[in-house]
Amino acid sequence: MISFSYDKIRRLQDRLIPAGLFACALLSVLTTLFIVGILAVEAVSFFREVSIWEFVTGTTWTPLFDPQHWGILPLVAGTLMVGVGAALFAIPLGLGSAIYLSEYANKRTRVIVKPILEILAGVPTIVYGYFSLVFITPVLQAIIPSTQVFNALSASIAVGIMITPMISSLSEEALLAVPNSMREGAYALGATKLEATHKVVIPYALSGIIASIVLAVSRALGETMIVTVAAGATPSLSLNYLESIQTMTAYIVQVSMGDTPMGSVEYQSIFAVGITLFLFTLVMNFAAIAITKRFKIGE
Length: 299
Known about the structure:
The longest helix is centred in the N-terminal third of the chain and has 46 residues, at 2-47. The chain has helices at residues 2-47, 52-57, 73-104, 107-119, 125-143, 152-176, 180-188, 193-204, 206-221, 225-230, 248-255, 265-295. Helix 3 packs parallel to helix 6 (152-176) and helix 6 runs antiparallel to helix 9. It folds into 2 domains: 2-48; 73-295, MetI-like (MetI-like fold). It is built from 12 helices and no strands.
């Protein structure tokens, strides 16, 4: 009797656990679909009032002033400036620290350094924003006097600091997943530690490294509070890192402050900007998948 009850419970568990896991996966997919659906519906309402061609090709963005202009290129330029600047700062720093921790650091050093590095991931982004404003910007102004109070460079550096732990942690996991036999084979052929790391370990873990970089850069493109505080609110196509800019996320924050009537074309513009940002990250993820497949070992 006890055995029968136990077997019955096990069979029930075998049915319920997969169903629960499937429900979790389905919930994630449905959440994504609902978000995209809301963005699309509101964006369609916006594009009934504003020409898509003007939105995509216009070089002036002044939706809250008269005369109104709806060209999103200045916001796209500001977003890409911060994303590229943050990547140029974070990729060498994050990847270098990952290589050191996985290949060169002893166990004691790793136990001390890694938690300190990952503390950066827990710092609120608003703190990074004000750190950029009150520390990074004055340092830049001391070096380059023409630097404005609100500028793209200080925001890029702050965002780069924020995403460095993400690149470092994920890249380190990819490097640690490389079998030791790969390293030992390289050493057996006479390779030095540097040669084994550069020519064997990194290529083997390249797909994981690329995934970490794409994830971090996507996070940088979607960052809100740092760019809102430090980068300014001046949509510009100048591409000058020392001047004030505005990103897509910063504009969404500006309109969401409550001064814009809900349902107006100005309010609906945040959904058009949001779906544009979503498409950017989607393209990046597809590119990452293609690159990962291209460099995946054994294919």
